[in-house]
Amino acid sequence: MSSSLPVVRSALRTFAIYGVYIGASILFVIPFVWALSGSLKNPYQLELFPPEWIPDPVLWRNYAEIWTIVPLGRFMWNTFFIAVLSLVGQLFTASMVAYGFAKFRFPGRDVLFLLMLSTLMLPIHVSLIPRFVLFYKLKWVDTFLPLIVPNYFGGSAFAIFLLRQFFRNLPKEMDDAARIDGAGYWRIFFQILLPLSRSALIALTILGFLADWEDFLQPLIYLQSTEKLTVSIGLRFLAVTASSDISGDPTTHLLMAASIVSSLPPILLYVVAQRQLVQGLVLTGSKG
Fold this sequence. Notes:
Layout: H1 5-38, H2 61-69, H3 72-103, H4 109-118, H5 128-137, H6 145-148, H7 157-169, H8 172-180, H9 185-196, H10 198-214, H11 217-222, H12 231-240, H13 252-283
């Protein structure tokens, strides 16, 4: 009898842990399921109490209608364009900076690295006004440049930190063997370190794409023309400007449909590359 107690306790512990996981998952899934349900209803069904989770009838035309009210396709393309160009600059420059911090010794290296890390504690609002003034004088306001160009000057502090940890975990013997074969620093960086950093780079790509896709504040500050808006600002544009259609009916159901459509690219990216994301984050914290 006493020998079975550890087994029972282990089973109860496992049951409790999975119960917490399932409960937390349901809390995160419910808003998405409600938005999906509401996107297939007419606006007045959303006001019913108790709410109806299964739409009757199912109005697929809501998804066709959102493309005629706002240029949602244009908003999604703008966001994708900004995210891709930003990621190229961020990954390339952050990997070079991380390579310097991880593989080179120079006076003040650790102090400079800690100073760089301290910028993670600064909210973006601190530098928002000086950056806007700078970009305004450069005549970059209402262009994509303020959202792209800064990523080509060091990337983000988090990306530098993550890649530095990954580079430090790689065996030093690989660098020594490459130097014996006559490889220089640039060849080691491009032909050895970057290919080996594939998982970390994929993890940063996913995180960076998600951050750029959902960014609201910076596009709101720098972009003015409707044809240049991103998805997050476009949804706000739909909620405010197109708050009612020609017949005077509310368009909450259309906003839900647009939200579902705009959330598909990051969801698909995460589903496809979630294993690489977890692997990249785990490997950066492993001991070499």
